[in-house]
Write a structure and sequence with these properties.
With 145 residues, the protein is mainly alpha-helical. The protein has 7 helices and 3 strands.
Length: 145
């Protein structure tokens, strides 16, 4: 019978995927109290972050940037439209294309959310150089994949 030590590559502590997964969950949990105050979920917050940079985009553009498929995005966008944060409009020349347009309420939400990044920076307890290095390393990995 083979023991766990025979399969060093299969030990959870030797995996890259596990600390990334666990860290992602922990960081998302740190966002929860701040997002709850704004009545937003974490994926809705990500959509707003994108729309604050690009106030009009297609569902496909949002999905590409956030690495989300349309099946995941569509219900999120519907709920955000019901909250008045954005509008969805079919393209008049290509009905397969849906434009997402940030509403005035979505713009106002940006002012309410501006304190989240500094609070998260403090919660993560990283110095600025370590924060930037980690973010750059993660972004580089994401680009490579």
């Amino acid at each position: 019978m083979k023991t766990a030590s025979t399969f060093e590559g299969l030990l959870i502590d030797n995996q890259l995927c596990f600390p990334l997964y666990a860290l992602s969950r922990k960081v998302t949990q740190l966002y929860q109290p701040y997002l709850q105050e704004l009545d937003l979920t974490y994926p809705q917050y990500l959509i707003l972050l994108f729309l604050w940079e690009t106030p009009k985009a297609t569902v496909g553009e949002i999905g590409e940037k956030l690495h989300l498929d349309t099946g995941t995005l569509t219900p999120l966008l519907k709920r955000m439209e019901q909250k008045g944060l954005l509008t969805r409009q079919r393209d008049t020349q290509d009905e397969r294309k849906v434009w997402i347009i940030l509403s005035e309420a979505g713009e106002v939400m940006q002012e309410k959310a501006k304190e989240i990044p500094p609070k998260m920076f403090c919660a993560l307890q990283l110095n600025p150089a370590d924060f930037e290095n980690l973010r750059n390393a993660l972004n580089n990995m994401l680009k490579q994949l």
